[in-house]
Amino acid sequence: MELRHIRYFKAVAEELNFTRAAEKLNIAQPPLSRQIQDLEQDLGTKLFIRNPHKILLTHEGELFLQYANQILDLVNRSAEEVREVKEGLQGTLYIASVEGYGPQFFAETISSFQKKYPHVQYNLWNGNSDDVNARVSKGLCEIAMITAPYNKEGFEVLPVHQEPWVAIFPHDHPLASNADKPLMPEELLPYELLIPSRESRKSEIDRWFSHTGKAPVIRGRIAHMMNAYELSRHGVGVAIYPASISHMIKNNEICIRQIDHPDAFASYALIWLRNHQLSRTAEIFIEHVKHQSLKPSHTGLPG
Q1: Residues 129 and 79 occupy one common structural domain
Q2: From CA 207, how far away is CA 200, in angstroms rounded?
Q3: What total of structural domains would you count in the chain?
Q4: Which has the least CB within 10 A, 6, 62, 102, 175?
């Protein structure tokens, strides 16, 4: 059995017509029929049911088609990887990320990855965790960063960072009087809050207040961190976001205090589809993340 036999079989199995398959392969029909007969003889079984007006796959033919597809896919990937070894890693890496720590992480990681693989290009999309999850599930990107809680069903999950939640507000806000101290959740009860739009965030933040027997007042649920920052800066409410929001602060124009609660931490992870063949570029990028020398995670707080 030769590789061409498998390619010929696949063409006939897809077309279910020897004439069309021969045209697709750019060969004459009689030689194609002989090649299929040789393959059937090698396997010791019929792969097709030949009728006057049409052909059908036998049960054995359907099984062999599954293996033929796997063999040809492996051959094609192997050829691509050999070319990449010779020519250097190429292609486009499709990435999706949440806000917060995501942009910083990918900027730092892509910068170091690019030094090793300068021909790789990048397509980076931003959204909330639910949208990012959906984008990976639909195959619109290969690698993504999300925040906990993680949906592990069907995904590989690689934790990469953790940072505290913080409250931000103008300098003339009453909470600014103790700006150098952590903020207890109950101190937030008199004020209206701006929180992320992801549904699980509301439940998570509510748990910080469970010991008080009271629920926080939510003024708004904001999808994008920049919008929450600007609303808070203009006194619309106290924004509750992961500490990486502090990277938006310019010239000390707003006050920031860390939330003092054991569960008030945001965890970030890379995800990709489980049992799915990633591109060689994506596989090497993940290995790069796993093995690069990362500095200890910092909180993202200024100072």
Answers
A1: no
A2: 11
A3: 3
A4: 62
Q: What pLDDT tens digit does each residue of the chain (303 aa) get?
A: 888 899 999 999 998 989 899 999 999 989 999 999 999 999 999 999 998 878 999 999 999 999 998 888 888 867 766 766 666 677 789 999 998 899 999 999 999 999 989 989 999 999 888 889 999 998 889 999 999 888 788 899 999 999 999 999 999 999 998 888 999 999 999 999 999 988 888 999 999 999 999 999 999 999 888 899 999 999 999 999 999 988 877 767 899 999 999 999 999 999 999 988 888 899 999 999 998 755 444 444 544
- 126: in domain: yes
Are residue 271 and residue 150 in the same domain, yes or no?
yes
Q: Which of 53, 87, 121 is the last residue of a domain?
A: 87
Distance CA(168)–CA(147), nearest Å, equals: 20
Asked if 43 and 64 count as a contact pair (C-beta separation under 8 A), the reply is yes
CATH code at 72? 1.10.10.10
